[in-house]
Specification:
globular; alpha/beta; 5-stranded mixed beta sheet; 514 residues
Length: 514
């Protein structure tokens, strides 16, 4: 039985890894650019010396606006080991977004990529923080003059900023030692502690997935990772070639990539040949159907293990190999041994306790919860109840020891007195031949008070000339009070950098179409 994990010391653990590991931690196909654990650690300490020369001290916050790069990872490790707060933001951020982040996290220093436009830098000069521009993808000559003989104490943290479900920006403060400990516990669960897996990091490092799932977890396996650009349409075309090229043997998938690879294989009517063996394949970030999991497994002979968690909680549940045969629709695996779950009756918008039977509010408690949210004054709000539980905002139930996610509380609407869970409608719609993806968006309604519009993406191989055929079919699948006000076909949905559908943006777009 897995023991309840304790919070580990990241600096100590990594120092021990440096003594043990002689192979690379970061791999590239460029001559001489692979970094061993020791070389990387030396560069981390030099980077910390450089940050101190710029006035950064333990407790200070660094905002980083860089593309996926070795420099990005060096700065991240420097903050974790040097007791500083690391706050990454996308390179596509606007001036207002940069200013908002810097205000929320009370940043002392902003490091920007040299490729960003001069106009943005000029606009950001109004910010009180120190601004430094650096080149990425260099041979690190610029940092070699700084000393690696420096005292580092650990105790750093990560600040992930997000728009939040209401559109109001949030800054989530995550303790670095807790984050590392969560990764180590996950690796222990899957018996990967000494597996030395090599992952391909194609998720944006400005989000937790790019730093936790594809940097810290590979290191927790005593393995390595290859840094790539965040995935895009061209990722699909060269996906398997890059797996071979970089000798990748572990994958972290997201549903949008899974669907893209399936779609490409079906269009070409062939599954790619590959010589490499994928030893582990994990999946997360957004809902996916059993049919899609099975189709991916059949096409590529790779079994995906789904995981569920939030930035605020890290992992809550995970599939393991032995549980695959007992999969349930919307199931995200078993609750992790060190996570406590409390399923509470749903309190809806008018504070009444709903008799809605599709799930309960999911509250969790674990050793690895976030420290809290930072408000616009930099003050910390834990957002936990008096028992230390956090409200995930998800609705869930447990069946056969599997955690079943039935939807987000914000995806629950009340139409004329009836409760409707919008993800249920989306899943039903995707069963119609040719519907690749569906998104149900709430709208105000003069009579019912609230209703919704269903947007779908369709497969060109299965032409759908009119939404009426989908409408007629869907009406046979769901009760009349659940029927959408309208169905519209869209080429694509607005998405976040991690591939999730941005429903707020989609709702605004739909308002112009209906």
């Amino acid at each position: 039985m897995l023991q309840k994990p304790h919070v580990r010391d990241f600096l100590y653990d990594f120092s021990e890894l440096v003594k043990e590991q002689r192979h690379e931690i970061i791999c590239t196909d460029e001559d001489g650019n692979d970094l061993s654990y020791l070389d990387f650690f030396i560069l981390v300490k030099k980077m910390t010396s450089w940050l101190r020369s710029l006035g950064m001290n333990p407790g200070d916050t660094l905002v980083v606006m860089l593309p996926n790069s070795v420099e990005f990872v060096l700065l991240f490790f420097s903050c974790l080991m040097g007791g500083m707060r690391f706050s990454p933001i996308p390179c596509t951020s606007t001036q207002k977004e940069v200013e908002s982040t810097i205000s929320m996290v009370d940043a002392k220093l902003l490091i920007m990529s040299s490729h960003l436009s001069d106009s943005l830098v000029q606009e950001c000069k109004e910010i009180k923080s120190i601004i430094v521009r650096i080149y990425v993808g260099t041979d690190f000559e610029w940092i070699q003059s700084f000393s690696d003989d420096i005292n580092i104490y650990g105790g750093g943290s990560l600040v992930i900023t997000t728009s939040g479900s209401t559109g109001r920006p949030k800054a989530i403060l995550v303790d670095g030692n807790r984050l590392w400990s969560s990764g180590m516990a996950f690796v222990d669960l899957h018996k990967l502690k000494r597996s030395k897996l090599r992952f391909w990091n194609y998720l944006p490092m400005s989000y937790l997935g790019g730093l936790f799932n594809l940097v810290l977890i590979p290191v927790a396996t005593k393995g390595s990772f290859v840094i790539g650009e965040p995935f895009s349409g061209k990722t699909f075309l060269s996906f398997w070639q890059n797996i071979e090229r970089y000798k990748i043997d572990a994958l972290w998938m997201v549903p949008s990539i899974v669907r893209g690879l399936i779609r490409l294989a079906e269009l070409t009517n062939t599954a790619p040949k590959r010589d490499c063996i994928i030893r582990k394949c994990f999946l997360g970030t957004a809902p996916i159907t059993i049919n899609e999991k099975n189709k991916f497994s059949d096409l590529f002979d790779i079994e995906m293990l789904e995981n569920y968690g939030l930035t605020e909680t890290t992992f809550i549940s995970s599939e393991v190999v032995s549980s695959i045969s007992n999969r349930l629709e919307n199931g995200v695996g078993g609750i992790l041994p060190y996570v406590e779950v409390d399923l509470r009756p749903l309190k809806f918008k008018d504070n009444e306790i709903s008799t809605f039977d599709s799930g309960y509010e999911l509250w969790v408690r674990s050793p690895f919860l976030m420290l809290g949210y930072l408000n616009n004054k930099g003050e910390l709000n834990e957002k936990l109840d008096d028992k230390g539980f956090f409200n995930t905002g998800d609705l869930a139930k447990i069946e056969n020891k599997n955690l079943i996610l039935t939807g987000r509380i914000k995806d629950l609407i009340k139409k004329g007195g009836y409760m409707i869970m919008l993800p249920e409608i989306e899943r039903k719609a995707m069963l119609y031949p040719g519907v690749m993806e569906a998104a149900a968006v709430p709208i105000a309604h003069n009579f019912y008070g609230e209703s919704y519009v269903l947007a779908v993406r369709v497969d060109n191989k299965t032409p759908i000339d009119s939404t009426s055929v989908i409408e007629v079919w869907l009406q046979k699948q769901i009760a009349k009070h659940k029927w959408p006000e309208k169905i519209i076909i869209m080429e694509d949905f607005p998405r976040s950098s991690s591939g999730k559908v941005k429903k707020e943006t989609l709702a605004k777009k739909i308002q112009t179409l209906v």
